[in-house]
Amino acid sequence: MAKKKKKQKPKQGHPARLQGDVVSIERAKVKRGLDALAVQFTRWLEARHGDNELAPMVLAVVTETLSSYAEAIELRSVTDFDPPQLFTVLTATIEFEEAEDPDDDSGELRDLVFTAWTVYLDFLLDSDLWAGDPASLEWLLAAIDADDPFDDEDAKKPLDVPETAEAAVAEIAQMSVSKMGRELLTWATTSGHEYWAAGPGPEYVSQAAHAVRGLFPKDLDSTSRHYVVAVVLSALEIAEALDTKTAALPELGSTSRDLIAPDEATAFESNYTYLKAILDLLLEQPKQEDEESLESWGLANLWLLEAIDSEAHSVAVARDEMFSEAAWAGAHQRMELLRALGLVSEGSTYDIPGIVRLALTDLDNEEPEEEPASQAVVDPFGFSLDDEQEPKREKRTEPYTGKVLQLKLSLRDVKPPIWRRVLVPADLNLGDLHDIIQISFDWSDSHLHQFYGQNHKISYGPQNSYMESDHDESTVLLSKLFKKPKDRLSYTYDFGDDWRIGIEVEDVLKSDDGQLPRCIGGRRMGPLEDSGGPGNWSEMVQGPKNDAPLTMMQDVIPEDAALQPGEDFDPAVFSIEEINENLDLEF
To answer: Is 352 found in the same domain as 262?
Structure first.
């Protein structure tokens, strides 16, 4: 039976607490002001231009330059400043940087700064946020004289998109990544069967990479080859050309013929879905949270955006000092990988084929389904909500030999995403899973919670006098609800803040000798309790640089979690070691 824990105060040793450098009051004021606008700005960019990928870059440039302004001239707010004086600061900053490197005559820094400010000023005008004289803002727009890269009226090179479905299918079919997909589809459903015994693990991927080795450039390292093969196999499943779930061995899926013999207009949808899946997977934010990986990923994506706007980045252009040498080299490596797959055109610039442009502007961005709001029930005094404390869970005396569920726990409606991947014995109950979730997100079990079946038709919860559930969670085994991959359940915690977690079975595994339950992956720290819910938390942490520590947060952090003087709070930190230590103590 699940043990209910008393409310724990946040630990002073939380891994997200960092000793940060002192940040000036002016810079902190700018950052807080722009952080508050980040969500609105991103939505505006999506609505106005159909794409919000440039939001972090624009806000980063505005933050840096407006901070310089604030440190030299009194800043009223991020929506109320003196345009002529700001223009002086912008030009002085650019001239200073250019003087530092007189051999660089590319003008990229000037274009970057003026483009970012053009977009931001348009946002202030469109959103009626400008607090000063509108004429002065119009003067500033004219003064910087920068072209808006998103302006539909600009004379842009038209997208080179095939006019017919047959032409589009032919263009996709000629790409290296499509040829690789066809070969891997054939291999996976024939000779690849002998390597499937342990599932799609490293050995299987290695053999698959060997089978299509002739399609890779000779200088591409084995790690990159294995990564590409894993992406292609996943994309084949997404496009339903490869089926690894129905039978004991991989078999051809419902759209396999369209990819193997793409010679008809009717094959367009399947091939286009495959291409979009490839791009979506390749351009996904890297799981490594080191600054170098994120910087090179963002830079490569920026070059793709430039290609979409027919302003393809030159391969040979000198490194922009804004980016580190490692990030610059990493971005080029990413682009060369895309080029090897036929997704970026050969030549002196990183241009892209027309069908890739179309797919990049049409990538799915599905929002989680809205769930009915539950009745708000909170514990105003912070005491445990249990009618009585249950006995401590007994440790296993014998090694567990049953099935193990690989679950992904995804916190809904927060940006950037927060999730955990855990391995859980199938013989535990929902009460146990509740404890695993609490530990995984570093919560204190001080509020009500409930599990829900599909469409909220069935509820599972603890037996107490504060709420009613259809079933007692401690009597429902996970093995009864989670039988196969894709099985799902929903979980809600703290009906005031309304933290909602989607639980999905990713795989059903055999037990091993490792710790159970245990966390094997995740991203970012769990939100602070009583911080206002997903929307408020997203606004607090989503800024021009998501991985930067938050400063001056005493007004939004609960009193019992208040920072010590000089402390910063980094929401990007995720400690798998601490989670597993706490799971080991509990189970």
So the answer is: yes
